[in-house]
Integrase catalytic domain-containing protein (Sander lucioperca), 325 residues
Amino acid sequence: MYWPRINADISRTTAFCEICLTYRPKQQAGKVGVDLFECNGKNHIVITDYYSNYPEVATLQSTSSRAVIAFLKTVFARHGVPNELFSDNGPQFSSCEFEAFAKEWGFHHNTSSPNYPRSNGLAESSVKIIKGLIKKTHDGKEDFHKSLLIYRSAPLQNGLSPAQMLMGRRIHTNLPMHDNLLKPKGTVKVTQAKEKEKVKQKERHDKSAKHLPYLKPGDRVRLLDYSTGTWTQQGLVQQEVAPRSYLIQTDRGATLRRNRVDIRLQTNSSETDTQPPVVTNTRSNKDCQSSLNTTDSGQTVPSSPAVKHRPSRMVKPPERLIETC
């Protein structure tokens, strides 16, 4: 059976059901551990997710509360704010500044027992692993970040890697892997939605766009100068190097690559892409002579100039309105 808002009603019922609350499955831990350590003369910080064992590492220029908070903000902005942060009792974490940070960002800060840092076991274990990676890559002159990538993508005892448990997908490494294994769940649905959006964007674009003619090698063109908004540069088309992308040899000897929208075709020294044609009067020479006025000194001057009807079109008056001698 079904009724409107059935899912909401079921959720509301189970939320207040005592038996459901008693036997509900264990919720996923939203807890991370953080610790500082020194290796090869540099200070480092590592934060590890308790659920996935996924580590985030950084080198600190300072071990102050401000530096630690700045690093934690970048991690929280990338992965989300945890429910609980576990650390030792170092001065960086026991300061008023860190207390204000925890309150502002809405997470609970727990610390290990004094003189017993092993209570922060996950962070201590992560420090040991990361220290080993740093020393091995330093002595072997290898890339530390590549080793960190391998550690994050290596399956644990449960068969899943830290990246899979944290992100819900495998991450690509230098090891060969079929592309289908890198696709997260729901990829087909997301791809179809993106394709539909591309079709809609193309339809909206085509409504206001027009087709520009294909350019051939040797065509005389002008190029748009974005700094001035003018079509000052001129040159010849060399070749089409990609769809609607051309190499232009300018009159100054430079070779430029431009998109077709920034190229204006010239035919007989007149542009044909963007300017509408000018309406001209095709009268005979005799008619043209009749439109000239003669002054007292015998000089011949043209009659009244053409009337500018619209900004982009020149229009001359009809012949019946022109006085003839």
Summary: Residues 276 and 312 are 7 Å apart (CA to CA).
